[in-house]
Amino acid sequence: MNINTCFHCLFNWDLIQILIKNLSERKIQMYWSGRQNNEQPTLNLFIALLEQAFTNQSNGKGETMTQTPVKTENISSEVASLVQKQSLTDIDGNALTIISIRPLEKERKEIYSAVISDLNEGEVVVCECKPSDNLEDGDLVERIIVVKLDEKECNNIITECKISLDEFPPSGLVEYTFDEKADKARWYLSQMCLASLEHYKGNRFRLWKEMIEKPDCKATFRRLLRIGVINRMFDHVAFPSPDHEKADWEVKNDSGKIVIMPRPIQGLRQWNVSKRAYDQISPLLPGAPTDSEKEEYWKAMLVKFKEQHGEQEIADLLNDKKTEEKEDA
For the packed helices 204-213 and 218-227, what is the interaxial angle rounded to 10 degrees? Predict the structure, then answer.
């Protein structure tokens, strides 16, 4: 919205009436409470609301336009009405216009609710939206809303990428699985967005090589030898193991400290809003051997380790299960 449009909105009483009419009670209270306390209201919020009113209700000539119709799928009129009162914006505070509303898919709700407890507190819907100032060509995005009918409230679910600290709807984060068989895979919501994932993948293979070539103790070295080559993404913070499996990827080092072993991700994916389907993402690490190259790569590494530590030492570390159990205890 340019400065001329802002002044047009501010000094056009018809538009101001439209703006006030369309504001939810919560937004009005937020704005006027700030004014009463001599606080400056959030500029992005006010501009976004002005832009929403101007885009949807005026064609630039002072004439009223028909508001973009919202398509609803398998939701009640009461839910639809509550959701449409929400003032949604993108991460930069620009107004979004709701295009459609539908229930969140069962599979996605199960994945998201495992880490976002708020999704269990009401009816969960997906709002597909476009930028209010570019309804024809703007990218389709989604917002996930929890509707509490009894309280007449809506909660826009926001998550955070732990790497970039940017905020996203849950579908803005990548999903992952440790299962090799896709048809039996159990998926989890990560703590990382796609942009951070692509950047972060760049140094993971080098990190794994440093861990196995310069281990902090014998117990760590043994476990890394038994895991073998890791050519897929791993990170215990962004891609944690489920609680009942975490102990399987921990080892106690010589000083008694618990060291978390790298656990390779077998599959990555992200929800595509436009397709209403998942896009698959390669978990392979840059610079790492491919699956067909792993065996020869590992043989070469074992030759080097045997030269450094002795052939019998490496054989013992690979085969001595009793020693491993004793040191892990």
Answer: 130
